[in-house]
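user: can you give me the structure for this one chain? tokens are fine.
assistant: on it. calling the predictor now.
[tool input]
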Amino acid sequence: MKQSQTLIPTLREVPSDADIKSHQLLLRAGFIRQNASGIYSFLPLGKKVLQKVEAIVREEMDAVGGVEILMPALQPAELWEMSGRWGTYGPELMRMTDRHNRAFALGATHEEIITSLMRDEVNSYKRLPLTLYQIQSKFRDEKRPRFGLLRGREFLMKDAYSFHSNKESLDHSYEELMRAYSNIFRRCGLNFRAVQADSGAIGGKDNHEFMVLSEIGEDTIAFSDASEYAANLEMAAVTAEYEQQKHSGNSMKRVETPDQKTITDVAAYLDVQAEEIVKSILFIADEEPVLVLVRGDHEVNEIKVKRALDARVIELATTEETIKYLNAKAGSLGPAGVSENVKILADNALKAMGDLIIGANEEGVHFINAKLERDFNVSLFEDLRFILEGDPSPDGKGSIQFAKGIEVGHVFKLGTVYSESMGANILDENGRSKPMIMGCYGIGVSRTLAAIAEQFNDENGLTWPVNIAPYDLHVIAINMKDEVQSQVADELYKLLTDYRYQVLLDDRVERAGVKFTDSDLIGLPVRITVGKRASEGIVEVKIRKSGEVYEVQKEELTDKLQDIFRQLSNI
């Protein structure tokens, strides 16, 4: 492609609303342009990178038996009502009505559509297993779109769904898809981890996220410093053992704690450590009040609470709800004397505590010397807190460390969550009707592009991996008005294209500095400069990533490029 014939609008200044490297560089290098908050157009270079990522995804999905389809973005509300998600998915679901006042949603995900298709088309175990996938735009009304392509309102996604007659078949497909995803992200050159995760609004139990390690990641990964264990912070199990503390035997005593609202405030006021205080937080789980207790130096993990209760919806109680159930506001809550209508859950760490300091459900008042089972009872002890750095790794190997990550993929074992609610049944080997067992597998294609840009850049611009770059070679004629340079550049363009290289020829009438700056911004793997020595048949070859430079005779150029790309492909 000749640069004069395509659209690559580079920018010299960093856009004021771009906070992270990938967003800044994709804008500056002319890969994308913003049309509205969280909505982007992919310009020619951006589209080519998307196609490269899509091609890798398709190859790996096809290799594990995936079959590509295309489903509608516009989805009828009745399917979401059938699954039960129309009222629970949340404000991120973009809803609308047509001229006949029929309700629709713009597809944030496609479980309902694919389940209804399979329900209508497959009715025997003999047709299973089956894995169907698509690459399509998704829509989510993000409250705060940010970080460019990493959190947008419209984005490109590969979503796949597998259907099975038994759990063993699902397990097999899940492992195959896990390997396929690892291959995809490895081929994209990414430094990533597969981590245990929560399924969120999708549903299901067993699942993993694929996280690209990055300082700007919005998710925290807990990983072992001595093994392959890794989990989303919300899902990392706590296996720490606590030293048992003895209770003094003293009676629970009421103490004034005026204007002390936080654990830190109360600890300082009473001259105690935070781990001697019980933190009490009220949640509403499936419309029922639940008081959750953790040690004062720990944080409640809402996902673990939800799983412990097997709740569909869980939310932090409002001030009004807190007053209704506990006759107090947050900051002075505690488990003593609460109504039997309020279920009490406690983190495992409380079992080892001695004299407890708890809120008295009265503003500015706490109890000291409280004791479990004497002064209050707990319905259930569970792991309900977030893991901390330095805690033992759940697999028993090493200690936990934290890292930030960008989620680019997520795989779920859905089970029968959707097939049961939507009537997607098959006849098994014995002629009995039973729901299909499902798996769900998603990759953020546009997010993957941004994650690659986030990991592959330097102070001058992007540094694309070989198999992801929009073009292999950037041929630059320093002076297109020079007849020899112009002729040599055209000859090389034709020669290298014939050799099946993807070539971008900078044939613009611009200053050399502008061309080199743009070339560094765009970040193609290899640059070939046709300059003053063109008359001698010599060109300059520069590797973008390493900065290595070679002067090469035209006749030896193809051999040299073969060596360079062989080395780059092995990195």
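assistant: here you go. The first helix runs from residue 21 to 28. The first strand starts at residue 32 and ends at 36.
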